[in-house]
Amino acid sequence: ARFDEERGCANVHDATGGFPALRTCYFRPRQAVLLLQGLLKPMTRYSVTLLVILPSCCQEVQDGCPKACTAEENGFQLSTGFYQLRTTEQTRTWLDISHTVPNPRDSPAPRTEVDHTGYISEAKWSPRQQEYWTLARGDWPGRGPTDQVQFKFIVVASGDLDENFRLDVAAHPTDVWNLGTPLTPCVGFQKPPAFDRCELAAFAGSTPDRANGFSLFLGSGQNMLENAVTAEFHLELPTPMHATNALWTVTTSLALASDFQTRGTQAWTQAMDKPITVRAMLEVAPTGELVEWELEAINAEQWVTLSFFPSTNLIPFKQSAQSVGTHAGTVVVRPPSGFLVVDSVPPQDVAGFNGLSGDWTVDATLNEFRCTLTDKNIFGETEYRVKLRVRNPPTPGMAFAWELLIQDATIPYPIVLGETRDIRGMPVYGTMQASLAPLNQLLGSTNVIRVELTPSQDVGTAPGAKITVVAPSGFKFVKRCPSFRRINVPESCTCIGSEAESATLTCAEADAIRAHITYIFEVEVTNPRTNPVTNAWKFLTVRPDFIGKDVENYPGFFLFPKELQSFSVLPTSRAAGSRPVVVTFAFSENVPFDDFLNIRAPIGVSWDGSNLGYISTKAAIDAEEIATDIPSYSPLEPNTLSLRIRMNLLAGFEYGFRANCIVPAATPIPNRWWIDQYRLTGNVNETERPVASMGTPGFRTQTLENCQVLPKNVVSEAWENPTVFAFRTTQAIATVLSERATVVQSAEIRIEAPAGFTYICDHQPTTEVNLERITAVEVPRSSVCIVNHADLASRNKLTIRLTNSSLLAETKYAFTIDVVNAAVVNPVTNFFTITTVVDDEAIESCTLPGYSLAENLARTYYMPARTTDENRRVDALRNKVVFVLGLTSSLAAGSTLSITAPLGFTFRENCLDDVGDPGTSVQALPSFSSCVGNMEHALVTVSEAWPAEFYELFTIVSNPTVTPTENNWAFVIRDVTGMVRMAEAWVRGFKIQEVRSVVLSPFNPANAIAGEAAQNQIVLAMSLTSRLPPSPTQDNMGATIVIRAPEGFTFPKYCREFHESSTNASLLSLPP
Prior knowledge:
The protein is 1% helix and 41% strand. It contains two helices and 78 strands. It has a six-stranded mixed β-sheet, with no helix packed on it. Strands 43-52-51-46-49-48 form a six-stranded mixed β-sheet, with no helix packed on it. Strands 67-76-75-70-73-72 form a six-stranded mixed β-sheet, with no helix packed on it. The N and C termini lie far apart (116 Å). 32% of the residues are buried.
């Protein structure tokens, strides 16, 4: 045998057993070299289907005809090894392929006794009635594993074929097809006149009891198949249980023997015009999943890695003068709805895995990736991987499936060889701000990391919310989480490490992780002994039912083998702007000439490249001088300053320099400085190697942080508007009094609102709930509130003067004061400024956006007993109450309604069924598309236009145990752009049906003697908040007073000494 000489892989038709993908191929007449993308596994069975040319004759000629070749003369040798290096394994001897017989096409002369030189020169096939050229399990109703599919075959003769000839049709792959029992008649055989009969047959590749083809016997005389005549026949065959895509063959031979091993003395084999394709059933369709992705956050652009098994193969395209196509087929990948393909970057192979050897294109219009395959086949049992660049959907969602399509290059309509819409995808979460600051960067060392994160969504109202930290491979969190420290995390949150790369904080209290609140904690982790290849940390917030809410990735840190002895950064001023800093450091080992130092400031702090002011003198830095080249500074990394050392530095001595850096307006997160030492190697491939590193805490910008303005009433010109102002200090201020109580130093807090606003003194107590939710402490109540209402230009300025009190550093404070809203606000100047002042000198300040003003809702109020489902009892889970809303202007579809109940009432998280039209109003409410509840808040999205009218609105809430002290509901309506349009903050609520002012007076409070009962007469006094009906017929749950005593107390079966009245004349008696 010999190969068709070619520089390509078109002669490789298939491979099984997970055979690695092809990198390239070389075919010479006596040798075929396949270069693979992966390694062959030991003790694994593989098969490879190659196109070979069997010898048509040997060198000797007998009686004018070619001499037949034996299988021993027609063999091959197989070897494996590393290309151009060495052979690792090979067969001991040559392996037989098959015996060959002379064929009439290549015979130099015909036989003398009979002209037996005819053969089939062309063969075609198609499914029944020219249907889709792909056969598949379940394509047609009622078809099972043994159902027959009708085939149509067409053959063309070259020369005359009579009863001495037989056509053997072999189904390839020969070990996959099972057509029935050999020597039995073909099912559904519709023969032309030239054919006599059809029998199932077993050919090479099968067992004698399993047919993998069929034989057609020809007629004689006038019924023979004459030269150039086209014959068409039909028969029904069962399709296999596995996907196949291979060319069948038709062999013309003389019918002189019944044994398939010695059948025929002359033969010519002709391949079909196209492969016979069987699509995979659902159970064996292409399979796969996304195995890696960078970030699950909404709108994130990232690489995702797709792994899949094709389950079928393609017949490779072979360029020739007769070929009409340009490629073998395509593999199409489509992401689910919401994902967008990124067409600026082509897909990439994954190192160490099989890749598709084709040309990738990205079609943004069709939102798909397409790989065009030519001479290199894909193998059904081989795993392939590819990296695809996508943009995540703009909204969170579950892991929707991706689509994979494999099709050939048939014109005009490609044949689908394999298809699945069940490629497991990835979930998409919300995004959040997160950062990481390690204590050290030492290889294999115990480390402590500081995590700061701010979720964008509430994790949920149920207990069990989680924060998960996932480190790069090699890091290890111990199960008991040593050194775990809650800095700004609820006390109910506990940490458990996975003994691997992740740690999880689980919070036992309800509603523990809320949106827009920064959570800070520290935990111990063990660094790996080598730097990870993928160096990124992942942070997630997870609901109690393990559904993710928010996610964020953060770049990891590089690890060094050693640490410096000391490192410090001292600013001359913490105020924003260009400020000198003094950097000092000492080494634990001698440092040779020509080493490099990189001083990295936190992200956000940059070195002042235009005015660096670098100096290293003992007088300037109070440390040893250091000789360096001119410091290098790159605008691409403005926080890094590089020094090339021009002297030998001694261990244990403190060196340093002073330079200008630009302090940002806000303190960077994370806030840590680093010094890294590198040494030149002289190696072209690795020019420098890391030596040592060390970090030190950074300084906070001198500014107020985490500033907040939280108004209760956003109605224009509203004066009943208790507003919470909150801020975090970085520097303490204090009012200092002399021994004679005169003011030596005066400290103040100043608020400047937009023009038109003013304040009503004195400031009010801030509720404990508000302080807890914003994690702040109250400004000292002894402070004095000052507003100059007489001056129109100054009435928007408020002064809180501290009298013999102070504000501590690194503390968040809050106070509440009534703000009188302006009539209108200018968006350009709508800002609040909070400043801490000492003796009229500003110490720290912050400026934050103000709030928009709205019209007042007309006649908005609670309607008592509007529905029969109203239930004002204590702790009732489903209380349906009705309100009247009076809209003063019309709104387009997409507006939102925000409902805030008094503290203690709660909405369900999915509250769409808990709000709507009660059906008791003339004007019907528009429909709602969503409702999201969180504690006492609910946000409703209106899906239709909302005309200016009076409406009735019902809402269902869970009642508190007692009537809230501040018992007012609030409604805010925003348009589709999010602008506040109408609001009402003081809708008087209803009282809970609670028992109040309970007084219990015992006559005998003594303990009982063991074995005896101590009789004790008690007097109960109480007040009700609602009428108790006189008869159960008027209220099936009322008209009863139930008294439950603590465990151990008992009441007699018959109430003795029961009286409806008391001796206290001030108490009313119970009705008789």
